[in-house]
Amino acid sequence: MKDPEHSTVEKVADHLFRHQSGKMIAVLTRIFGTHNLEMAEDVVQEAFLRAIQTWTFNQLPDNPAGWLMQVARNRAIDIIRRQQHFQQYSRELAGELERETEHTIEQFFSDAEIADSQLRMIFACCHPALKEEDQIALTLKTVSGFGITEIAHALVTSEAVIQKRLYRAKQFLKDNQIALEIPAGAELNSRLGTVYTVLYLLFNEGYNSTKADELIREDLCAEAMRLCLLLSEHKTGKQPATFALLSLMCFQASRFESRVDENNSIILLQHQDRSTWNKPLIEKGYQLLNLSSQGNALTVYHLESAIAAEHCLAPTFEATNWSRMLQLYDMLLEQKQTPMVMLNRAIVLSQLNETITAIEEIWLIDDIDHLLTTHYIFSAVLGELYWQTGDEHNARKFLQQAHELTTSLAEKKLIEGKVIAIDKTKMN
Amino acid sequence: MKDFMFIFSGAPQQYEFSPEQAQKHMQNWFSWVEELKGKNIYVSGEALLPAGKTVKGKKALVTDGPFAESKELVGGFFIIKANSIEEATEIAKSSPDLPYEGSVEVREVMKF
Q1: ipTM reported for the complex, 2 dp
Q2: pLDDT per residue over A53-66, tens digit each?
């Protein structure tokens, strides 16, 4: 009988299956070809079922990850062997060919080749000819090992929609015979750019979505960071922009826990308890930002990370170096003239006591009338700025508009708080 | 206390698990075995590989498995201790495979 002291529930590392799934699918797809992606998925599914069955009746193997990989490897050799017709030739040649096949397949399963295959898989999933939404779904399914239900949940959509996206993406890989390869030469930079966009979107989906529940959002952010880390550790992915993106994620993630309160209400940066920010992550962010400064590239990720770093550097919101912030936003605006960047720049202006200019700048945003009636954040910020200038009428008007637009209870509460504050000042 | 055999069959062969669900399912099995061990009623358990052979009849005719539909395929067994078949059956009700259409056959081990 086992000593009860030692009879702890056998523990498998968190997300082991998910992470192994990505590795196994990458290696198997490299062996079978992207047109056989489903075959790879079946082999992986089989390996998990085998693991459930054998591990639970017996003991956990010493190296669960290696065990799974071994099952996948054996199955791959099995499948390839079955489809080759060695027996048609002399027994000697058949034996020779069989050994060679086995040896060749074996080589795909070294650690270095596994990492390489994963990167190739990321490039295939983030193929520039795919729609963004399809890239994200396929990456989550294939590289990250998310199930369809989990993807639907994370992206706040239905399983049918995800299934459609996955089908479309897989069909594209098949029809166009997309090979699992790492782009080289001039193509590499633009292909890396697409990968960055997907990872950035993935992270933001987890960080900013207010609809999905907290657990799955954290999963998404962690997954985006894991893939970015993977990229940064590969000789091809080790680019300044990769470090910049990863550092940006570290800075943002350091505030992950501090950005909502116990009622799941959003806490604005100025109200966050900075002592709760994750210091090791901030440290990591700085290290990566340093690494990213090698070379001449100054990408949007460099600038956004530098902005995030400024926030982390400031002991209080008031002590933020706003003029430095404005410089960074000016540079960012040159590369990324999006309404969101312009809105954030306006907020910086208001911190520099240029609230009137800030409001003017917001009205200069392209298509602002439409944005104000469709995206709560624009009316929320505009309302807030009007309030700062003492224009209670406009403040109330836009805050109420924001209140109607947001579907997030947390944000509704936040805006209600402000409207009440306006009423209070009125009464005084 | 008597010995009982739990014969597990069926699930979750045809069930589409996501990797995360698969891991969770396995964790449930670990917890269950741990619970039985904690009560000192778990004796042993083994898993069976799906492929196999059947030897049958006077001529010892050998056929390749699988012998049954995957629904009925035996996946493994436990020996556990209980006071009665009713008590053993109660224990079998917590088998983690049940939600996935698995089944447990509960049989008393004969003592000579």
Answers
A1: 0.79
A2: 888 877 788 999 99
